[in-house]
Amino acid sequence: MRGAKSAKWVAGAAIIALAATACGGGNDDSSDSASKEKGKPAGYVSVDVGEPQKPLIPADTNESLGSYVIQALFTQLLEFDAKGNIVYTNAESVKSDDNKTWTVKLKPGWKFHDGTPVTAESYIKAWNWYANIKNNQQNAFWFEDIKGYADVHPEKGDPKGAEMSGLKAVDDTTFTIELDKPVPYFEYKLGYYTFAPLPEVFYKDTKAFGQAPVGNGPYVFEKWDHKKLIQVKANPDYQGPNKAKNKGILFKNYATVEAAYQDLLSGNLDMIRQIGPKDLPKYKTDLGDRTVDQAYAAVQSLVPVFYSKTFKGIDPKVIQGLSMGIDRDTITKTVLNGTRQPATSFTPPGVAGNQDLNTDVFKFDPAKAKQLIEEGGGVPENKLWIQYNADGGHKEWVTAVCESIRNSTGVDCVPDAKPDFQTDLEARDNNQVKSMYRGGWVADYPLNVNFMRELYGTTAEANNGRFSDREVDAAFKKGDNAASLDESIKAYQDAEKLVLQKMPAIPLWNYKINGGYSKSVDNVGIDYRGDYVMTDVTVK
Amino acid sequence: MGRYVARRLLQMIPVFLGSTMLVFAMMYALPGDPVRALAGEQTVDPAQIAAMKHKLGLDLPLWHQYWNYLTGLFHWDFGTEIASGRPVADTIADAFPITIRLALFAFLFTVIVGISMGVFAGLKADTLRDRGLLILTLLLISVPSFVLGFLGQYLFAFQLGWVDPNVSAEANWSELFLPAVVLGSLSLAYVARLTRTSVAENLRADYMRTAVAKGLPRRRVVGVHLMRNSMIPVVTFLGTDLGALLGGAVVTEGIFNVQGVGRAVFGALQHREGATVVGIVTLIVIVYLVTSLLVDLLYAVLDPRIRYA
After folding, report:
1. Closest chain A CA to residue B264
2. Which site among B4, B147, B168, B255 would you substitute to test the A interface, given the most A Cβ atoms closer than 10 Å to its Cβ?
3. Are A273 and A50 contacting, i.e. CB atoms less than 8 angstroms apart?
4. Which A-chain residues 460-479 have CB contacts (< 8 A) with chain B?
């Protein structure tokens, strides 16, 4: 009896426990399984693009996962082809006589996915909203060239107005952008997806929009199953040059790159963006000619911090010497398994203005490295640290680079690991880096300017090495004041030669995409940022 | 008995408060600023970061943040994630169902296979089949779960083609089979060994001799008299094990692409999503408390000598 009574209590408690922990049932999505891949409608392609960090609003997305989805759903004025040349998408033309006032003509007849027309006002209103500090958009600073930005995004306090005075609609399909000062390469900036327009429905409920966006792009939003997948379907009414050649995309979230690769091999995934280190040595035999192995416009560097004991007031020759002490070829081939391509300049290939610097600073030459470091007065205390974040797979190559420097130059080099990216960034922001940090930069727009001005200008926000040089600043300024885009690129090329003499960073290598695709898709290509061109992918 | 349960439930309140406060303080103490990190290596706007922090209440002192969090909890508000702006409750509701399914699956596997193996070996201690079990379980204990996971994936998914290598977004029972077996195999080894020892020992107990002497059929001797008493140490282990399973398994979930609690906590920790970490850890703490209560109550069922006032 006693036992039976206790059992009743146990059962009662168990029911309470189950009720408390069972937060919801499973999902019983029944989907047609035309393809082998579960839950994928016929004609769709799937790619391993994980959960976007932020709501899907063009100006709030700055990481590579969210940007994939944003670029599928939205189309801004123009885009770039694989070579980095401008291709007009929503714009018919973008013109300026003085690089200060730009006139944008839109292609007529474009519609958002909800059927409302895309007008000049759709752009102006969206840009004003993006730039407004009250809306806390991550990419708000992209609008800082536009006249009146300081009114909507003051450094302190509340905005003075809600509109930037530089944006004016001429008619339904024409508007003008007036800048604070001439920017010869402003058109290139317009190719960033942050400059996308927004439909009226956005302003009714911005929060709901971020979960189910209505864009004007080649794909229409279908569903977002958080942490699992995002599904979009091709937009049949799309009028741009980049109309989808498949019926839709599944952006699938994977816990690890290894898991994604397993799914690729077993036919449950069509495209993988990056092969994990475990599978890199064998992915070419596994996939045959279905691999993607291409460099894109991104560079990884060692950035000396000029407030540190090691590099304060140092002779640039020493940094050049350190650069020559790194065996880039061997490290990229062995430790990095061919996932990087040795750098030969401060700008990566694939951006306009990338040039052959005609120098041996990026060549491995231990004898000359030693000589240069000696001539420059040596490294203080003959020791330096390379800071990196331990959660990003950098440990192996940082160790190899240190080994290389130590062996070839005799300078003691110590890897300085920070547990994760946040801690790493905090040390950079607060000027607490011991001597060098690992820097990475992906092109925002395919122009050499982006790799110069944003990184090495005295006031540049991303200049965490606190490099400051009057001559370099003057050279950048010359490029900004140039009369035309070509002259500006040319001026920045000259500036790059000057940067080589000052060595604000040691470029190591350019990133490569090492991905692959399944037998069921074809025409897989990448753009200058190393992203798959999803609209071109066809299903076999 | 009722009063005992009530007392135990009341005791959970201070444990709950203490553990949330500890986790909260730990998250606060971690270096790195999640709001700043959103900008990555891109341009940083200090005014904007300050505005975002203010909006999320992250600029308040620790005690104030904790107070806000606690008062929110009473309205079933687990807080809001920094980057995505989604309620933490949604993240929890996304992750827990699949982990619960996986955990129950693994748990059932452990209980059924583990106990049968243990009884099977324990009834004939020191024979060949007993030695065989000891060696097998020793293997399971010493092989790390990721080796087992990759091995299982390679064998059953790629060589034999019986299952898919990964769990898809739908997470069917059939897909969960392999991860559940891998997840449960370590506990399986412990359960088998515990049961075996306990059964082997109790076989020599006085009440067993009495039961046999009474002329009870062997089925009843083993099934009721022996099993019931032998289960006490096993149940203790299973109770904490269920808690551990429900807490998620980062490694196994990673191998089989299960978007469960383990991955959710891990991801949140990486992105310094304090509210998410505290929310999930709090739930795991509650799960542990409830399972340990269940275990204590089960003792009374299994062993009539144990009474709870």
Report:
1. A227
2. B168
3. no
4. 460-462
Would you tell me how many other CB atoms lie within 10 Å of the CB of residue A245? 17
Count the Cβ atoms, other than its own, within 10 Å of residue A168. Answer: 15
Residue A12 predicted with pLDDT over 60: no
Q: Which two tokens stand for residue A29?
A: 């999505």
Specify the pairing of strand A340-342 against strand A229-234. unpaired
Q: How far apart are CA A533 and CA A517, in angstroms?
A: 13
Ordered structural domains, chain B, with CATH: 2-83 (no CATH), 89-302 (1.10.3720.10)
Residue in this structure with the two tokens 């049968």, named with its chain if needed = B116
Q: Which residues contact B66 (CB under 8 A, 6 or more apart)?
A: B20, B21, B24, B25
A370-424 tens-digit pLDDT: 999 999 999 999 999 999 998 878 999 999 999 999 999 999 999 999 988 888 8
Q: Which chain B residues have a beta carbon less than 8 Å from that of A439?
A: 41
Q: Is the ipTM of this complex over 0.90?
A: no
In this prediction, residue B224 carries a pLDDT of: 85
CA distance A36 to chain B (A): 11
The answer to whether residues B250 and B236 touch, using CB atoms and an 8 Å cutoff, is no
Å from B42 to nearest chain A CA? 6
In degrees and rounded to multiples of 5, residue B110 shows phi and psi of -60, -50
The CB density around residue B33, as the number of other CB atoms within 10 Å, is 17
Contacting A residues, span 23-82, partner chain B, CB-CB under 8 Å: 23-27, 29, 38-39, 52-55, 62-63
| Residue A32 CB-density burial (10 A; 0-12 exposed, 13-18 middle, 19+ buried) | exposed
Q: What pLDDT is attached to residue A315?
A: 93
- Based on C-alpha coordinates, what's the Rg of chain A? 26
pLDDT at A376: 92
Contact between A426 and B34 using a beta-carbon 8 Å cutoff: no
pTM for the full predicted model:
0.84
CB A273 within 8 A of CB A264: no
Side by side, the strands of the sheet bearing A101-106 are A91-96, A101-106, A174-178, A167-171
Please state, for a pLDDT cut of 70, what percent of chain A lies above it.
Answer: 93
Using a CB-CB cut-off of 8 Å, the residues of chain A touching B283 are 21
Maximum distance among all Cα pairs of chain B, rounded to whole angstroms: 85
Give DSSP secondary structure letters for A475-520. HHHHHHT-SSHHHHHHHHHHHHHHHHHH-S-EEEEEEEEEEEE-TT
User: Residue A294 and residue A397: Cα distance in Å, rounded?
Assistant: 20
Contacts with B, A 371-410, CB within 8 Å: 391
- Using the beta-carbon criterion (under 8 Å), do A454 and B300 form an inter-chain contact? no
Q: Are B43 and A441 an interchain contact pair (Cβ–Cβ within 8 Å)?
A: no
Q: pLDDT higher for B224 or A35?
A: B224
